[in-house]
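Appendix B, record 7
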Amino acid sequence: MGLARSCSRRRVSAAGALAFTCLAGSAAAQEVPTTFAPKMMLSNYNRHPVGVMASIEGGAYAARANDASALWYNPAGQAASADLVLSGSASAFEWTWNTRNGEGDWIDDGYYNSVRAAAGSTSSTLNSKEWYWGSLLAAPRSWRQSTNAETTVDLPDGQRKLVQVNSSEIETYFIGLGIGWKPDKPWRFGASAGLLGTWFQADQSATARDLTAGGQGASVAVLRTSGVSYDLRVNLGVQTDIGEHLTLGLAVRSPGLHIWDSADETFDLLHTDNGGTSQITFRDTAASTSYRYPLEGTLGIAYSEETWAIEFDVTACDGIGEYTFLGSEKSIKSTQGGAVAETPFNDVRISAEPVVNFALGGRTRISEKVQFHAGVYTDYSPAPENGQVFDKINLYGATVGFSIMVRRPGSFWVIGLNYLHGSRDDLAARDLATGANVPTDVTVSTLSAVIGTMMTF
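C-alpha cells (predicted):
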C-alpha cells in the first residue's frame, strides 16, 4: 500500500484553448482546428523505482541486483543467488492537487487515486550451479493528474466565464522472463526479454459563456483520448566482483520493437451566439498510437562490507527522433448554417531528447535483524521544450526505508518512503482570457509510501 502527494501547476488543455478560440470570434469566422493533442503527462522514465530493496535505495542497483528486479536493472543479477527468491513491492495510493498562476480559481483541491506500481517475481537455479532463471511483473511508471478550475474575464461590455476540467493518466507495465549464467566466480551474465505496455487516457472539457450588452454567446468543447501501445524490449547485463568488496555492473536495454497498438479519439465543439450556431466534430475509434522507448545503458559500481553497502549508478538514454504518437485517417467535420466541410486530421507527433540520470543508494545494519536504507536519484525529462503532449519537468528523488529480517537470513519485510520534486517557472501555457502563450510556474511533488517483502528458500 502507498500514499503519495503531488502538487503541480499545469498548462491549459487543448479543449479549453479551442473553446476560447471559437468564442472569441463569430460563428461565421470560426477557425477549424486540424489536430487535437491531449495535454496531460510527464514522460520521465524513473517515476517508480522497481523492486523491494531498490525502491528504498533510489534505484541504485545495477551492480548489486540479486532478486527478481535484476530483470529490470541488470539481468546478470539473476545468477547472484543460488536460492529460490520470491519478492514483491507496491506503492498503491496517490494524493494529487493542482494549482497554477493567473489562470483562474480552483473548484477543488485534489483527490486520492490508486497507483498500480507493484512487482512480483521468482528466481532460482535450473538444476545447475551455472544457470539461473527469473520472471518479473512491474509497473515502473504511473502518472495521474486532475484539474477543475474556473475564471471570469472582464469584457468591454460585459463578462466571460470560463470553466475547464482536465484529467489524464499514463502508465507503463513490464512483464518478462530472464536467464542468468555464472561460468566463473567473479563473473555473472544475464539476459531478459519482456513485453512493455504503455496505456494512456485523457478527458478534457471546457465551457465559455459571454454575457454582454449585445447578447449572449457560449462554447462547449470536449476532448477524449485513450490508447495502448505494446513493445518488446531486450535487456543484457554483466556483473563482476573485483576483489572482496568491489562490484561492477553494466546493463544495456534495447529500444522497443513495436508489436501492437490501439487508440480512439473524440472531439466535439458547439458554439452559439447572435450570428448563429456552428459545430466541429471528430471521431475515430480505430486510430493508431505508438510510444517509443530509447536505447539505454547503465553502469554501476558498488562497495560492500558485512554491515553496509553503497552503490552509484549512471544511466544514459538515447534520444528519439520525431514520430507519430497519435494518428488517424479520419477527417474533422465542421458545420455552419447547414453547410458541412471536412478537414484532414494532422497526426500528433512527438520526440524525446537524450537524458543522463544518476542514482546513489545503500544500506547499513542497525541491529541484528534491522537495516536502514536510503538513496537519492534524478529523473530528468526527455520531453522537448513546449512539446505537444508531454511537459518537460526534471524531477529529483530521495528514498528512505527499513528492512526487517524474518524467518531466516535473506527474507525481509520492507517499509519506506519515496519523495520526488521538480519545478519550472517558464512552462508555456495558453491564457484562456487572451489566447496568448505565457510562462507558467510549475511545481510537482510526490510523497509515496512503499511496502514490500522478499522471501528466500
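Remarks on this record: The chain has a mean pLDDT of 81. The longest strand covers residues 215-242.
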